[in-house]
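User: Quick sanity check before I run a bigger batch. Here is a single chain. Can you write out its predicted 3D structure?
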Amino acid sequence: FLSALTAGLGAATLSGCGYALVGRGGGFDPSIKRLGVPLFRDVTGQSNLDQKITQKVIEELLRRGKVDIVQTIDGVDAILDGEIVGYQVVPVGFSGGGTGATTASRYAITVTAKVRYYKPGEPLPIWQNDAFSFRDEYDMGSNPSTFFDREGQGVERLAQAFARSLVSAMLEAF
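Assistant: Done. Predicted structure follows.
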């Protein structure tokens, strides 16, 4: 009983001092009613990566609610501008075949983007990261002919996790 009482008093004291748990605060600036999220630019040349990332970011922002999300920068209170600057797929796991040959059996995909969340006309951004990066892995499976299917599935999963992490980071800044 005494330890529960001490923990409760400690939590009440910390909350009264302005401390908060990371991930519990954050949110949109109350003055932002309409957020523009134009298509992320993509300098990597990876097919449809810009569309997948942008769509997942918009879905995550909509999931968080409270603001209108549009794909234009006209008539908005804030803009989330992104540029995908890196896309890398590298083998991270290997398996030996029956012939003694070693083949890649697991790959890592890393996407890096420059992201800026700002109010038009304001000199400083609300949040900015010039090297926002996210990494995910996928298994190749036993059939090498499914490589592109597996990579596509990995990119889809990565885009979702990238968006969730990005939106959390930008909303924690406020």
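The first strand starts at residue 34 and ends at 36.

User: Great, the batch can go ahead then.
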